[in-house]
Each structure stands twice: as C-alpha cells, then as structure tokens.
Design goal:
This protein has ten helices and eleven strands. The chain is α/β, with parallel strands linked by helices. A six-stranded parallel beta sheet has the order 1-11-8-7-5-6. Strands 3-2-4 form a three-stranded parallel beta sheet, with helices on both faces. Strands 9-10 form a two-stranded antiparallel sheet.
Amino acid sequence: MAAKIIDGKALAAQVKGELRGRAAALAKKHGRKPGIAVVLVGDNPASQAYVRNKIRDAEELGFYAEKHELPENTPEKKVMALVERLNKDAKIDGFLVQLPLPKHINAERVTQAVLPEKDIDGLTAVSQGRLAVGMRGHVACTPRGIMRIIDSVNYPLEGKEAVVIGRSNIVGKPVALLLLERNCTVTICHSRTKDLGKHTKRADVLVVAVGKPGLITKDMVKAGAMVIDVGTTKVGDRLRGDVDFEKVREIAGWITPMPGGVGPMTRACLLENALDAAGRAAERK
C-alpha cells in the first residue's frame, strides 16, 4: 500500500486560520497588531520570493509587517545598525534577517545580534540553548513545522527510532532535540556517516535535510516509516527533494511531498513564533 501523503499546504492553511484568530484577539486586547519585520540584503531571487511570501502571509493574518531591503554592497555595520534599531522598536515583536547574506557580511555576527525575545527564526545561541535544556523559547521554524506535521497524523513518537540526516543549526540539530524531547531514540547522520542505509533502514521516523536530490532511495527506508523530506534543490526548471518520492512512497507509511510539504509549514511556524513573541511582549508590559 502506498504511503499517505501529508499535505503541508492544507496543514499550513489550518494553522494560519488559528493564527488569524489569535492575532485578532491579541490586537483587540492590547490595542495594536502583532508586528513582524524581515531584512533582505541583496537581490537573490529565491530570497526575494521568500521574503515577499512571508510579508504577504503576515499581512493576510492581520499582522503589522515591515520589509527592509538593502543593496548587495551594504556594509555590515549598516546591517547591524538596522538590527539594533529593530531590537528597540516597540512595534516589532519579532524579526529575521533573511539568509544567505552577501559574503562580505558575517552572517553569524548579524544573527547573534538579534534579541532572543525577537528571534523568530530561532537561530540565536540563546534560543538554541534554551531548546537544548528544555526551556521556553523560540524554536527554529522548520523543526517546529516538522513536529506539527508529525502530530497532524497523530503519530505516536514515544519509544520510536528517529534518524535525522543533516546536522545544521537550522534543521538537523534542533529537530533532533525536539524528537529526543518526545522520547524518541535519535541518531544524527551526516556527510561522514558510514553506511548511511544501515541507519536509515531502522528509522521509524526519517528526517532528511541535506540538499542532495534523490539521496534516499526505496531500499534505504523501513516499511511503514514516517519520511519527512526537507531538501530543496533546483534541478533544471523544477525543485527536487532529498527523497526519491515516487519510489519511497511505495514502502513508507507517511511521506511529505516536495514542494508542498515542509515549506508551507516553515512559513506558518515563523508567524506562530512571531505571535508567541507578541504575546510574551504584552505579558511583560
């Protein structure tokens, strides 16, 4: 029997519906809309599309939204000055600096300059440290979206074998921590892992986030497994994931498509983080 396809677009629409109601209630209670800002440096077409979609989503849900576009050659100190201004702006509850940044700008320095309470990307050392020790804080959007996807089908995680391929701070490490928090036995694989298939074959939950099209083939997947494809690579005129979707769906129990799987949930969870930030800001006043 073919795997059940988890429709990320439909799930994201459901989440956004919930967020629209929460945003309206917060605005009514506190007399202002939740505020979000996105900083874009340069003219990378993919980044421009991501930012445009984030701002559109925010405005559709009743947020106050700002987009700050800076030229490719903007000095790092000017980007840092904008980050500092947004840190102090009471209208902005959360913001992010769109990655990647131009090579002359130190992305880590800029990312770490964002106040943790406004770090809706969940990328500061404070946000990631809080996740590691089980404290409340912003969780990176893609891992948060992945957990929402798994929960949407009422998949019981406790005691399951989870394998995460990829060890980035944006996806791999945080999603491994979230799965561990839910009582999975977690293995992290990466470019130096030997005999990758030996690990993936035993996974009840397989999360793949490396950017290598078709890396995971049917023979590497356990029958009935939950397969979450985070990879996004442009091949010719189309986007491809890390999983050989058509073949793997023949053996998996659940699978996310690409596009239309994790991506829409990442954007929805960015707004969920922003709304959480707005609620906490209101609590502090």
